Amino acid sequence: xxxVTQLGSHVSVSEGALVLLRCNYSSSVPPYLxxxxxxxNQGLQLLLKYTSAATLVKGIxxxxxxxxxxxxxxxxxxxxxxxxxxxxxFCAVTRGGGYNKLIFxxxxxxxxxP
Amino acid sequence: xxxVTQNPRYLITVTGKKLxxxxxxxxxxxxxxxxRQDPGLGLRQIYYSMNVEVTDKGDVPEGYKxxxxxxxxxxxxxxxxxxxxxxxxxCASQNSNTDAFFGQGTRLTVV
Lengths: 114, 111
Description:
Structural class of chain B: mainly beta
Largest interface: A-B, 23 and 26 residues
Shape of chain A: globular
Helix content of chain A: under 10%
Number of strands of chain A: 11
Number of strands of chain B: 11
Oligomer: heterodimer
Number of helices of chain A: 0
Order of helices and strands of chain B: EEEEEEEEEEE
Distance between the termini of chain B: 36 Å
Helix content of chain B: under 10%
Number of helices of chain B: 0
């Protein structure tokens, strides 16, 4: 069975500060891992994904995540937060390539204040 | 433009009144699925379809039906909606070599 835990349902940072959103996963098979972002009244947009290649994955809008097998983690970071980063972020895991159900975490709402 | 289109975006209905949320994709994807999003629970899969006339239950299928008569369309049917089906619903589509594309969401309120 696979599962995802996102630590912190709400995270608040100042503009220009480091963004760190935590994700831990559980998987009995090598996982594929994803971060999605949801802006208000919009669908989910893929930020980045890990598919067993490089462990440090760079995504859109300056975000990156590092796959750490020993810690079963896939934390999302951005060096300097912008106001436009305010959104809800979801970590997800799946079994691998092809048609596989995405298992989502509960989500983390990021607030960015001036 | 590649997209997944859901309609309606917002819907308020009464308990027991049948409704359908439509989902259409223009990317010729084989795999389509429906998720519901609830606070503190993330997204959970309701139903999925591997291809035309092939559908199967996800994690939370109770109270829902789907059909896949054409490759591009995957409607979600609530035959007798109840208040616990008040939620934000997302349709997604993909092929084996692509990421999942999500629709804009349908916010359903059942009173």
